[in-house]
Design goal:
mainly alpha, single chain, 0% strand, disordered N terminus
């Protein structure tokens, strides 16, 4: 998350290098390799993606508050908040694949990529685990030793907690999706480096798009967990396909916008009709969110209310702090559980007060962590 910041330092310089390389090669020679070219109209940093990330994290937060929203106008929408994770997957797929495509021929490819991912992911992740387990009686119960037996440390260390039938404590529950992204980073980076032809990468991504819904349809839950990586590849694969297409297909900006809007229309229509309640629901959401991300990318910088809302103001701010907020919001809910108890006698008004208080405290905690911790560590990326 927030990997688009990694692109800002590379964009213009890389485009010039690619143009020089292609012009220096004999005609047709570069066609045998995966040459990439960022569209001339696309800036290195896309502020609208911050707003989409903000929508995603707020959706997840409200989803985890949905019992408190029962009986209000917000309840129905909050039940769909889990889909924010799917939007995160599409964003990660696009941003990470863009970084990999644009750096695949540069020195220290693996060192730089994995080093940057460690700086971005591990500090907050380790901090969450340390706090939750050291204060196990509060966050997990009843003791540190019992907590370790409930969710073994080795599963978190190797980011495989989503692959085993473990009962994840709620405070670290969000880490299942982080594990999927880490496994994706680990496997996808070598493929982008080694597969020289675009159709090879496209074939891998198409296979993922086909396999995930089929595995869900075949009800492989007997040996797969509901959070298994193989059944949650739709969003990441769509995001990666967006990056591959934008770097390889020389289509006009208007064409990309229309394709994005069409994807949104098709995806959301399918979500509300034929895909609803089926194994293909995530597939439909993947198409819808890929369309939304593509439309935001292709229209970046446009002066209209939608782009302004995504690139400025509260949504963009929540996008900036989204990783920390996603990781710690349930822990914050648990820590301030005493407030929930005080509000219980007041019915719906008390429930709305709980939701507002949770959002306020999670925002405050994530902001402090971003400015006092995450952003300071990210300064080390200049050495990679």
């Amino acid at each position: 998350m927030q990997a688009d910041r990694d692109l800002a330092a590379k964009g213009a310089e890389h485009s010039t290098e690619v143009a020089k390389t292609l012009s220096a090669e004999p005609e047709g020679r570069h066609l045998t390799h995966l040459s990439v070219r960022r569209p001339d109209w696309l800036p290195a940093y896309i502020p609208e993606l911050q707003g989409l990330r903000g929508i995603a994290v707020l959706a997840v937060v409200f989803y985890h508050c949905h019992p408190r929203l029962a009986g209000t106008w917000f309840y129905g929408a909050s039940l769909w908040g889990w889909a924010g994770v799917n939007l995160f997957f599409v964003l990660s797929g696009f941003l990470i694949t863009s970084i990999l495509l644009e750096s695949r021929t540069k020195p220290h490819y693996f060192r730089n990529f994995y080093g940057r991912r460690v700086l971005r992911i591990w500090p907050v992740y380790i901090l969450l685990l340390v706090v939750v387990y050291l204060e196990a009686p509060w966050f997990i119960g009843p003791s540190v030793g019992r907590a370790i037996l409930t969710a073994p440390w080795w599963a978190y260390l190797f980011f495989v907690q989503n692959l085993f039938h473990l009962s994840l404590p709620p405070a670290v529950g969000p880490t299942w999706s982080l594990a999927i992204e880490e496994q994706y980073y680990f496997l996808w980076a070598p493929l982008v480096r080694l597969l020289k032809r675009p159709w090879m990468l496209g074939t891998v991504l198409a296979a993922a798009l086909v396999a995930s819904p089929l595995l869900r349809y075949a009800n492989f839950y007997r040996w797969m967990t509901p959070t298994n990586t193989l059944i949650h590849l739709d969003g990441i694969a769509w995001g990666s396909l967006l990056a591959l297409g934008l770097h390889r297909l020389q289509l006009g900006r208007r064409t990309w916008v229309l394709l994005g809007l069409a994807g949104m229309a098709i995806g959301f229509s399918a979500t509300a009709t034929v895909a609803a309640g089926t194994a293909f629901l995530d597939s439909a959401l993947g198409i819808a969110f890929a369309g939304a991300v593509l439309a935001a990318i292709a229209s970046t910088g446009a002066h209209n209310p939608v782009n302004s809302a995504l690139s400025k103001g509260p949504l963009a701010y929540y996008g900036r702090i989204s990783y920390g907020m996603y990781m710690i919001h349930i822990s914050v809910f648990i820590f301030f559980g005493w407030f929930d108890l005080k509000m219980d006698p007041y019915g719906t008004a008390g429930n709305l007060a709980v939701v507002a208080f949770r959002l306020m405290m999670a925002t405050l905690a994530a902001s402090v962590m971003w400015y006092g911790f995450e952003s300071q560590i990210l300064k080390l990326k200049k050495y990679l």
